[in-house]
Design brief:
8-stranded parallel barrel, TIM Barrel, elongated, binds 3-methyl-2-oxobutanoic acid, alpha/beta
Length: 288
């Protein structure tokens, strides 16, 4: 039997995402595994294999220790699980901020070894030149401005950006430079509504907001946040499910059933086949 997921589906591409500027809002979520990617795929335009996996899936306190090899494994899984959404993979800290040639080699590894359609870099003064270098060599790049989680050690924490006029100007100039360098989309994280709207008006690439108001061209959230996997979520997250509580409840119920020998029951048990009934003979059965 075929389902609608068996039909030939064309993946969205960087130009498809770029053309959505100012039209229908773009929908993006993070994904790190094949089964979750499969569940999110139909609802999204873009799946980001975020280096937030370091904190979400690996229990790290920041994204800084995440490696290229980790991103490749998660990227491969998300590509296997999805068919329609554009898949973009984060370049992890230390894989792109040095020489442009090194950034190119890292991006090529991510794209060759996963099949993803693009990569994302967090911006900063040196990064627009790197974006231009990568785009000129056939690599679709998504930028990331405002709060940049990989800058946690410079910033002294995860702090919203653009609170002073000088900082507003810096973030706006950064977004302009990223867009002018050829980024096909820009994540805008942790900025107030006015700045998000100014950025969105100023750049030709569509903006994806996270903690950046409805003033962006689309939205992105960390999937585990919006599914309620953690006790605490930031103010900008809306919880669409309470999976953390549901998993805790299910684990407790399973534990209780095992301890009281209510699991497994007959419905979950394999039994030996019943012995075959003896064959009837003509003399016993009467006539043929
Ligand atoms: O790594 C990530 O999940 C991200 C999102 C916060 C956009 O960069």
């Amino acid at each position: 039997m075929s389902t609608h997921r068996d039909a030939v589906v064309r993946r969205l591409t960087a130009p498809d995402i770029f053309r959505r500027k100012g039209t229908e809002p773009l929908v993006a979520l993070t994904a790190y595994t094949a089964p979750i990617a499969a569940l999110l795929d139909d609802a999204c335009d873009l799946l980001l294999v975020g280096d937030s996996t370091g904190m979400v899936a690996h229990g790290l306190t920041s994204t800084v220790p995440v490696t290229l090899d980790m991103m490749i494994l998660h990227g491969q899984a998300v590509m296997r699980g999805s068919r329609r959404s554009m898949v973009v993979i984060d370049m992890p800290f230390g894989s792109y901020e040095g020489a442009v040639e090194e950034a190119y080699r890292s991006a090529v590894r991510l794209m060759k070894e996963t099949g993803a359609q693009g990569i994302k870099v967090e911006s900063g003064p040196a990064i627009p030149a790197t974006i231009r270098y990568l785009v000129d060599r056939g690599i679709p790049v998504m930028g990331h401005v405002g709060l940049r989680p990989q800058a946690v050690n410079i910033d002294g924490g995860f702090k919203a950006k653009g609170r002073t006029e000088a900082e507003r100007e810096l973030v706006l100039a950064d977004a302009r430079a990223v867009s002018d360098a050829g980024a096909f989309a820009i994540v805008v994280e942790g900025v107030a509504e006015g700045l998000a709207r100014d950025i969105t008006r100023a750049v030709s690439a569509p903006t994806l907001g996270i903690g950046a108001s409805a003033g962006c061209d689309g939205q992105i959230l960390v999937t585990d946040d919006m599914l309620g996997m953690f006790k605490w979520t930031p103010k900008f997250v809306r919880r669409y499910a309470d999976l953390g509580a549901e998993i805790t409840r299910a684990a407790a119920a399973y534990s209780e059933d095992v301890r009281t020998r209510r699991f497994p029951g007959p419905a979950e048990t394999y039994f030996n086949p019943k012995p075959a009934a003896p064959a009837e003979t003509a003399s016993e059965g009467g006539s043929l």
